[in-house]
Structure formats: C-alpha cells, structure tokens
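Re: beginner question about structure tokens

> Can someone show what the tokenized structure looks like for a real chain? I only ever see the sequence side.

Sure, here's an example I had lying around. Input first:
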Amino acid sequence: MRMPSLLCLLILLPVTSLAGPPILTQLQPGSLQNQAQQSPVPPGTIRISTNLVQVPVSVTDARGHAVKNLQLEDFNVEESGSPVAIAHLGEPGGTRLEMVLVFDNTGSEYARFDFEQQAATSFLKTIFRPGDAVAILCIASKPEVLLERTTTLGTALDGLSQLKASEYATAFYDSIIAAAQMLKGPADPETRRVQIVLSDGEDNFSRSKLADAIREAQQADSIFYSINPGEPSVRLNKVSLRGQQGMEALAAQTGGAAFLADKIQDLGDIYGRIAAELQAQYLLSYYSPDPKTDGGFRTITVRVPKRPDLRVRARQGYYASKGPSR
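And the corresponding structure tokens:
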C-alpha cells in the first residue's frame, strides 16, 4: 500500500505582490470574483464584459508537434451548437500565464522527490516570464500557503527548494478545488489559467469528489495538465487506475492532457512537452450571444475545418456569470 502523500501547489498569478521567505499559513476558503468593466476601449483591444469568453486552444499535427501559424479565419467556434464570431486571436504563447504545479511525494521516496523537484525547477525557469507571479500552496489534510505571491522568479525558486517530502494524508480533490479558487479573479482578456499536476491522482482525505473538482476547474476557466510518475504499472491497481482516470477526466473537460510516465526519468521530457505547448497555445476570445446571467453551463466546440489532419484541444464548456436573483 502506498504511503499517504503531500501535495504542493504552485500558483502563477499575474498580480504584483511582496516577495518574502516561505511561511506556512492556512488557506482560507473563497476567492476573488470575476468583475465586468464596461468603459470604452480603443480599436484593436478587447472590451472586458460579463459575456466575454476566452478559450485557450492547443493545436498539434499528427506527430504531436505544436502548430503556430494559424490565423483567426482558420478557426470555427460554436457555443451550445451555434456558430459565434471570434473577436480576437492572441499570439501563440504570447499571453500571460497563471499556473498551478502540484507535487505528490511520499516520505519513503526521497530520491524520486529530488528528481521531481529538479524537473519542476527546470520547468519554471523555462516557462516563467515577466508579468507572471508565483505562490506556493502545500496540502496535507488541508491547503496551506508556503510562499505568498511573488513576481520574482528567484523567490519562487527558493520556495521550490524548501519543499519537503512528508507523510500527510492526501486530499487531492480538495487541493484542486483550492487551486481553482485561487485562480479565480478579475476578468482579464490576456491571461491563461493552468493547473499542472505531478501526482498519481489518488485521494484518501478529501471531502470533495471528482465532479466537484471538475466544476471548480471549469468555473476558474483553467486548463488541467497531469503527469503521473507511477509508470504503467498503475493500471494493475484499481485505486491507482481510478486516480489516473480522474485526472484524465479533468484534462478532457478543460482542454489539457494527462500524461503517464514510462519511467521517472521521463518527467523532464513531459514537463518540456507541456512547456512547448503552452508557449504555442492560442487564446481565442468571443462575446457570447446568450445574454442570460443564470450561471448555467454552455458547451464550446473549436474546430480548424480546413485542416482535418490537425488535433485541436480546448475546454468543453464554461459556466456563465450569475447575476443577482430578482
């Protein structure tokens, strides 16, 4: 039986904050709510409004290589089965990132922990750019903040270096929900929100379920990526298989991907694949034709009809804003 795990979440947020040494504080529930801005804007910019929908889109060829030369007219978008006009197409990989990096480390596997830590450090050095911000969140039986938000890469790397393997219970789904709530914030037309999870997906302590985690990830407009370091043998264990399938469901619903490493040495390559995808990811924006603010779920379909050879991944839907009851 596997030992309970420690989950650590790394949050990249495009906000300015004070840097400081890592300190553990309990995460309080709740988050910033999306805010609408209705002021006039110059031509060529995006007006932030309650019906602005942003859809990060990953496009790859048959060999899995990112495709970066597509134009706005190459994409077709439908909301709830009806075509919509695309208002803006961001440069591939050119928009800011908010990211969550999740570590799952057992206390008995210090050698693997060090390797995972090194791979994550290399990933952060590759992907971090000015305008991003970083916070580190650790989870045992409940989320705790290890590093407050910082816009300094060095401070974030120091925080990563102080992560320790331990033997706490694993509230996996509660952790995903906590990360999603921290990713929620004022509407921003030039930001992608991403969760990247290094875990087997097994949960032995959460009060929440998979469906709750999917809903929160969708409400945060976040993309979910996972890296399972457990190797293909996880498919021989029902608990491990259920954990992997849960992460695959989160990835499918949000437009991400779920990777299963063949061996621990593959972690660096998988992180590299995710980094390459994020650096080539499009951000489509459109204004929903549905004016209702009922908080309902609306499906999204993105296609590149003239290039059937390409693979397109995008989130499968979003939750509309919810207005005050009458």
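Each token stands for a local structural state, so reading them left to right follows the chain. The two ends are 53 Å apart (CA to CA).
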